[in-house]
Amino acid sequence: MISLAGRDILHGWGKFVFTGIGLGLLIGVTLVMAGVYRGMVADGRALLDNSGADLWVVQRDTLGPYAESSSVNDDAYRGLLTLPGVAQAANATYLTMQVRRDHVDVRAMVVGIAAGRPGHTPGWPPQLVAGRHLARGHYEAVADVATGFRLGDRLTIRRNHYTVVGLTLRMVSSSGDPMVFIPLKDAQEAQFLKDNDAILQSRRRTEANPALNRPGVPGLLDALLESQSTNPYVNAVLVRLQPGHAPDEVADTIRRWKRLTVYTRAQMEGILVGKLIATSARQIGMFLVILAMVSAAIVAFIIYTLTLDKIREIAVLKLIGTRNRTIAAMILQQALALGLIGFVVGKIAATFSAPYFPKYVLLVPQDSITGFLALQAICVLASLVAIRVALKVDPAEAIGG
Known about the structure:
Blueprint: H1 4-11, H2 13-51, E1 55-58, E2 72-73, H3 76-81, E3 86-101, E4 104-113, E5 130-131, E6 140-144, E7 154-157, E8 160-168, E9 179-183, H4 184-192, H5 196-207, H6 220-227, E10 233-234, E11 236-241, H7 247-258, E12 261-264, H8 265-276, H9 278-309, H10 311-319, H11 324-353, H12 365-391
Parallel strand pairs: 4-9, 6-8
Antiparallel strand pairs: 1-11, 1-12, 2-10, 3-4, 3-11, 5-8, 6-9, 7-8
Helix pairs in contact: 1-11, 2-8, 2-9, 2-11, 9-11, 9-12, 11-12
């Protein structure tokens, strides 16, 4: 049996193909946006995986250290090491800022890691792609390759300069910013310590306070002046558990005895995905709905236009006894073919353009399958308008003027 839809497509293949390409670019944007959301979730999970922690101990009643600011005394880790089930506990700081190399600024998350070694101390990057890990207590940095830094580059963080000695891969924050690792003491200074002018002014105000210069409180002024030049805080303590200990039980012990907030891996993932990424997810979801509506409108308009262009041919088919079901099937096949061309073009466009996006785009087969089925459903619904017009055609128009 001759395919009426195929013959009609071949007759006007130029219009049909170019329309499919335009629809395909729209589908490509849709797939990329879904990939952006997948990439955000992957970045959040990579952040947790790369930290090497089973528990995150943060300031009480905060969602730190990634979703909110958190300040914990840097000696808290010693008390955590005495608790049953705790194998390792290490301080860490996290600060998203502009890192400067020469005259170029790069948005990065600066991570302060405690002295130790990779694979043993939580917070250290698990592996490098070039160079070595931090070996000195000051002024060395390990950067993710996404920063664009190279081995030997000189970075400026606040008022200090650092030399890049190692490069990592896929070490990013939950927002996709690449990480730069520096020694903990340097990171504490960068995040918590005031600049020299601010310290000098603060000391002058303290010295001018008459309440601190009373004879009955010796040493109080000196203690306050000393505290202004120190920074005994970190953002979190990363805890690694001994085998066989349940994270929830150890977390409850820490909450009870140390009066700090503790998150397990599941809870921290819920914060990153359910709170940090939730707004972006809803925004992307709204864009996907809008794109689906636009795609349906495009397919409906094109199929409707193609149907109007062959009203006389449809009337002839009815005149010779062609059933309405056959005519409807012809229009439906054209809509599905248009959707197939659009999906192929969109998939190719999304695959080749994804690496060029500034944020990580993760294209998964599940989204492609869902997108294909949704597109075909949209094409079926969009063809109903054209089918309705075709079925109302009067066979007498075939012999009319």
